[in-house]
Amino acid sequence: MSDSRFGKIFGGMLAAMVVLTIVLIIIANVVGSTLKDEMASLKDQAKAKELIARIEPIGKVAFGKPAEVAQTQAAPAAKAETVSGEATYNAACAACHAQGVAGAPKFADGGAWNERVARGKDTLYANAVNGYQGKAGYMPPKGGNASLSDDQVKAAVDYMVDNIK
Ligand code: HEC
Predict the structure, then answer these.
(1) pLDDT digits (tens, 9 = 90+) for 128-163
(2) Phi-psi group of 137: left, alpha or beta (phi > 0 → left; psi -120 to 50 → alpha; rest → beta)
(3) In whole angstroms, how far apart are CA 47 and each of 34, 51, 55?
């Protein structure tokens, strides 16, 4: 390779690198300023949250049945801790009982429930907690949700029984 050819190639590469550097600097600037804008808007959001928290009323008056109140207050942790029958029913029982799927006695349907209730609540509790195979179908233990406590299942039974029409 002659010296002049080498010079041309080297010069060309140098020029290309300079151009590349300039392009990168431009990109970095654009991305940087977008990020800055985003950070600013995040800060605004955090400030807004702080403000809302500061001007929120101290107490909330709750109307309605105790079960509803408990549910609205404990809504995010519904599965793990609440003993609210309604919340447990909605989470673990409604899948079958709301529409009477697979022989499940339908919610609020007196025709499906009265004879069962007549056998006594303890039987209902036991069958809901332990599960059972009846004439109409199979009721899985705790509705198939083993993480429920016995009390949660019983509260759900209470909720269902209280709503029979
Ligand atoms: C996979 C569907 C399914 C789910 C989920 C389910 N059940 Fe049932 N359940 C049934 C079926 C089917 C029966 C009727 C069984 C029969 O009598 O033949 C039944 C019956 C019952 C009975 C009547 C028991 C009796 O002695 O007559 C109670 C009480 C009950 N379920 C409570 C619950 C509760 C509480 C939950 C939620 C924790 C729940 N079920 C979830 C299917 C289900």
Answers:
(1) 999 999 999 999 999 999 999 999 999 999 999 999
(2) left
(3) 20, 6, 12
Crossing angle (nearest 10°) for helices 110-118 and 150-162: 120
Report how far apart the first and last C-alpha atoms of the chain are (Å, whole number).
Answer: 99
Report how far ligand 1's centroid is from the alpha carbon of 162 (Å).
15
- The answer, yes or no, to whether any atom of ligand 1 lies below 6 A from the CB of 103, is yes
* Ligand 1 atom nearest residue 134's Cα: 18
In the chain, % of residues over pLDDT 70 = 85
Distance (Å, whole) CA 6 – CA 53: 69
Q: Please tell me the distance between residue 113's alpha carbon and the centre of ligand 1 in angstroms.
A: 11
Q: Which residues contact 109 (CB under 8 A, 6 or more apart)?
A: 100, 164, 165
Distance of alpha carbon 92 from alpha carbon 60, whole angstroms:
29
6 lines ligand 1 (CB under 6 A): no
What does pTM read for this prediction?
A: 0.61
CB-neighbour burial class of residue 53 (10 A; exposed 0-12, middle 13-18, buried 19+): exposed
Q: Which amino acid is at 156?
A: A
